[in-house]
Structure formats: C-alpha cells, structure tokens
Amino acid sequence: MASEDEVFDTQAARTLVSQLRGTFSTCKTKSYEWRISQLKSLLKLANDHEQDIIDALRSDLSKPPLEAYVSEIAMFKSSCEFTIKDLKRWMMPEKVKTSITTFPSSAEVFPEPLGVVLVISAWNYPFLLSLDPVIGAIAAGNAVVLKPSEISPATSSLLAKLVGEYMDSSAVRVVEGAVPETSALLEQKWDKIFYTGNGKVGRIVLAAAAKHLTPVALELGGKCPVFVDSNTNLKVTTRRIIAGKWGLNNGQACVSADHIITTKDFAPKLIDALKVELEKFYGNDPLKSEDLSCIVSSNHFARLEKLLDDDKISGKIVHGGQRDQNHLKISPTILLDAPEDLSCIVSSNHFAR
Q1: SS (H, E, C) 35-102
Q2: Which of the residues are catalytic?
Q3: Which homologous superfamily does the CATH classification assign to the domain defined by 10-220?
C-alpha cells in the first residue's frame, strides 16, 4: 500500500508486481502451510474487526448492521471456513485414465497456481467482493494484489490497514486509489485478473488483459426480472421481493429485482400489497428509516434523480419517489408500465464505477 505522499504510477505498479513475482518464484505460496495460515488470518481479520467492518459499511453505504453482517461478514466467514475445510483435498493430485496407446502408464492431474493475481473490486459489497476472490487466489497458491473501489473509501481504507496487519505482505498487497492507480495496474502483466463491476469498465479490463493473453474472470451486472403469478401468496411474495430489492443496498446489487412481470388484472393487487408491506419494512417515512441504505455517491444520486424526473418516467411512479439529497436517500419507488426502451437509463442495481 502506498502512503499518502507516494504516487502510485506505472513504475510503482511494475515494481510491486516484480516483488510479488519474486515471492512466488520461491514457491512459498505453493505450500499447504502458507495457504492455510493466510486463510486463517483472513478469518481472524473478520472475527477481530466485525464492528470496524460494520462501521465502514455504514459510512460508505449507510448499510444497516444486520444487513452488513448477513450479506458481507457472514458470507465471507462462510467462504473462509469452507475453503479451510476442503483445501487439503483440493490440493491433492487427481488420478485420470490413460489411453491404451500409453499402456502401462498411469496419469495424474496436479493443480498448480497461476502466479500473481489482480483483484479489482466493486463498491456495493466492498468487503465481501474484495476479499472473497482473495480467498480463492490464496487457496490456489497465488500472490495477490487487491484494488478496492474508491467509491467506498471507508471500506477501502480499512481493508488496506487490516490486510497489511494480518496478511503476509510479501505476497498479499492492497493498492488504494482511483482510475490512475487502476490504469497503472492494468498495464502490467498478470496471470489472472478478477473484476467485479459494470460492462463499460469490464471492456477496458479485458482489452488490457488481451495484450498479455491474461485470463480474466468478469462478474458484471445484468437484468433480474421477477415473474408473479396471480395464484401466488401475496404476503409471502411481496415480502420476498422487498427483501431481495430494497434489502440489498437499497437496490444497488446485481441480484436485486429490477422489474416485475405479471398480468394486467393482477398488477393493482400486487402494487397494493407491496405498499402495505413496504410500510411494515420501512415505516411511514422511509427516508428516516435506519434499515434503508443510501445511494453510494452524489453522482449516482443525481443520475437516479434525473431518471425519476424524466418525462417518460415521472408519470409512471405509483409509489415512493421521495428523495433526501443531504443523506443521499431515495425511498422505495414503484413504477407501473415504465417504457421498455430508455437508452438514458442505467439501473441503480449495476456495479457502476
């Protein structure tokens, strides 16, 4: 991690990668002992600093403590524990059949680490989506550089601090910063790149990786429709929709529902039921609810505000739409028969940077 007075440029990125390749070349990261010790350190990091993590997520996204624990901390711990339990088995060679043409030979597949891995994380689950790929990279015996999202600065700063304290800094590093730092990292040759975010930046990552034939894992946003049949249990259905939509970062999640498809006759009943359950979830004034996350930044808030004020949209609002610019909050909002083709719309559930 560079200090505030240091500039992380292309040369700094090149030096960092060279240092990590030096560590990897010693075969240090390949041993079971190193891998398991680092995974246990990650688990200890989460156990020791639960409240710090919750506070950082509250600062970045106004994420409620229960949501922060369930959707980030608990899932991260579960991933750590699962990996620790099965790591030794995953590292064992796998026997495979041979052809009659090579009789009487035998064959095994040996899992080998790729080398030095870059993880570029997202802002909407800034703790989980930063460290979960790191778990896999370490379990496979790689050295890792983590680049957290600058849009969630409190969590980014906390990750840099804790990873520096708990992890082997000769093999696991964090680089904070924005576009210049990410660009400097992408100019380097990596053995694998993990990126969580939107398609626009995903194309940039993939283009940079292609110069070195680097394999890339892209986790991008998409569309998440909900189909509601008229025979459904309305209370159960609406509560699940609300929890899966506004209970996930106030909709800022790639798996949150972004539109509902139902019959024209059933739509009014479904909307009425959603209104009733929304009041139970967030009260008469959702903007004052402690259980509703905020929009991550003023830029994202302005983008969504512009969307709601669009002539094609404003008349379609049948519930909600209230906003609090000072606290970057938008109340749960339902649109009825919104236009299908609005090129200006970028849904709030995408990992936009």
Answers
A1: HHHHHHHHHHHHHHCHHHHHHHHHHHHCCCHHHHHHHHHHHHHHHHHHHHHHHHHHHCCEEECCCHHH
A2: 219, 254
A3: Aldehyde Dehydrogenase; Chain A, domain 1 (3.40.605.10)
Q: Which of 94, 98, 97 is nearest to 109 (CA)?
A: 94
34: nearest Cα among 20, 47, 24, 44: 24
Phi–psi pair at 287, nearest 5 degrees: -65, -20
**Unique residue bearing structure tokens 């570029």:** 120
Token pair for residue 339? 């236009």
CA dist list (Å): 248 to 203, 228, 229, 272, 347? 26, 20, 24, 22, 14
Q: Using an 8 Å Cβ cutoff, are 155 and 125 in contact?
A: no
Beta bridge partners of 180: none
pTM here?
0.90
pLDDT 10s digits, 149-196: 999 999 999 999 999 999 999 999 999 999 999 999 999 999 999 999
Q: What residues have CB less than 8 Å from 292, skipping those under 6 apart? A: 62, 64, 246, 250, 282, 286, 329, 331, 332
* Strand, coil or helix: 109: strand
Q: Return the ∠ at Cα 189 (arms to 177 and 128), rounded to 5°.
A: 45
Rg (CA), the chain: 23
Structure-token match 């990992």, residue found:
351
For β-strands 334-335 and 317-319, DSSP reports them as antiparallel
225-335: CATH, from 3.40.309.10, 1.10.510.10, 3.40.50.2300, 3.40.50.300: 3.40.309.10
Rounded Cα–Cα distance for residues 12 and 222 (Å): 35
pLDDT at 4: 52
- Spell out the domain ranges in the chain: 10-220, 225-335
- State the DSSP H helix or E strand holding residue 144, giving kind and residue range, or none if neither: strand 143-147
- Measured CA to CA in angstroms, residue 90 lies from 77, 138, 180, 288 at distances of 19, 13, 37, 48
